[in-house]
Design a protein that fits this description.
single chain; 13 strands; alpha/beta; 372 residues; 2 domains; Rossmann fold
Length: 372
């Protein structure tokens, strides 16, 4: 079987790209032909690794130094005829008449048996331009229904009703979609992201390092994490916090660290790939998101034997973690003080920390490709 994933920018970083790379590699390992079709290509090589068995195919060349760069194309400056997906419309690679044409041409000519869209605007294209009887058309939600702007929800829900299936990464989100689009309820299901076990030696739990990783954006609430750590840092000067990732909040977070005088204990490490060796250096992992569709970083840390302290945000972490078994779930209303208390409870109790760590890899195994 040939399976094509339609991704907006497979050359960037983020959970959608990582999830697609993991799923593509798993399907290729089962003998399927897998193609990742990236609407845009803005760099020579992807930031995240793809299996050599997965074909990566860009539709629009956005590399400034490439002879084939299409930034100056008149069609690249013409507005898209698709409804506006606010998640990409204001970015450096916005939808345009050129992307409309390339996506439509791909959907018209592909020989795939299954085409999977990975964000709302692509689901719109798949519903509008896909060939209904030539291949299965599957929409995939990597965010949350509630995270989309109102008009995006309206348009995407209308589009997904015409697809063969629509998949979310959490059970709760699937239930919300079924309630929102009852006429398509029997075609909406939840399949969590698969996260393969890394080839690293698991953490021994003795490092006195707290690790966090993700995009440095408001949704991840690293400001809350830094505030929480500031509340316990003076009592635990031998503990440190490392935050891996990049994003537009980097300067604000750095200024926050400086203002709190935490330069010796908090490090903004920048992006790193693969991330698994960094998880394995930690004694604890921290997730402070206000929302997580799935929580791939949670499973990555668990694979590396690291207990996770996470906000009990909608929806992913609470579906992955079991409180006081493989990590701790902190109610959102508890804020920085509650998160600090959860971290400190494990910092000060090595035996409890070890007990949670002993369960982490069993939980992570539920998300191995062969299980999913």
């Amino acid at each position: 079987m040939k399976i094509a994933f339609l991704v907006y920018n497979a050359y960037g970083m983020g959970g959608t790209v990582r999830a697609t790379a993991n799923t593509g590699a798993a399907l290729a390992g089962l003998g399927h032909q897998v193609e990742v079709v990236s609407v845009y290509r803005a760099r020579d090589d992807p930031l995240l690794p793809f299996s050599p068995e997965v074909r990566l195919r860009p539709l629009v060349d956005w590399r400034a130094d490439s002879p084939g760069c299409e930034r100056s194309s008149p069609r690249a400056g013409a507005p898209s005829t698709m409804w506006t997906d606010t998640g990409v419309a204001s970015g450096p690679m916005p939808p345009s008449r050129l992307t409309d044409e390339r996506i439509a041409a791909f959907l018209r000519t592909t020989d795939a048996d299954v085409v999977v869209s990975t964000r709302p605007v692509l689901t719109g294209h798949l519903a509008r331009d896909g060939r209904r009887h030539r291949y299965l058309r599957i929409g995939q939600e990597h965010l949350l229904l509630g995270r989309h702007a109102g008009h995006v929800r309206v348009h995407q829900n209308r589009a997904l009703a015409g697809l063969d299936a629509f998949v979310t990464v959490s059970r709760t989100d699937a239930a919300e979609y079924r309630a929102a689009v009852p006429r398509a309820a029997d075609r909406i299901t939840a399949i969590p992201n698969c996260v393969p076990a890394p080839d690293v030696v698991p953490s021994d739990g003795r490092s006195k390092v707290i690790v966090a990783a993700g995009r440095l954006v408001g949704l991840k609430r690293y400001d809350l994490l830094i505030d929480a750590f500031a509340g316990i840092a003076p009592r635990h000067p031998d503990w440190s916090l490392r935050i891996h990732g990049r994003g537009h909040k980097a300067r604000e977070l750095r200024d926050q660290v400086d203002a709190l005088g935490l330069q010796e204990q908090v490090r903004l490490m920048g992006p790193v790939s693969p991330i698994d060796p960094e998880w394995a250096k930690g004694a604890l992992a921290a997730v402070t998101s206000s929302r997580e569709a799935f929580g791939m970083t949670v499973v990555e840390a668990l694979h590396c034997g690291v207990p996770v302290v996470s906000t009990d945000c909608p929806h992913g972490p609470g579906e992955i973690l079991t409180h006081d078994h493989d990590g701790l779930l902190v109610p959102m209303a508890d804020g920085a003080d509650g998160f600090a208390a959860a971290l400190e409870s494990l910092i000060e109790d090595p035996a409890r920390r070890a007990r949670l760590a002993a369960n982490t890899r069993r939980t992570a195994a539920d998300y191995a490709p062969e299980r999913i």
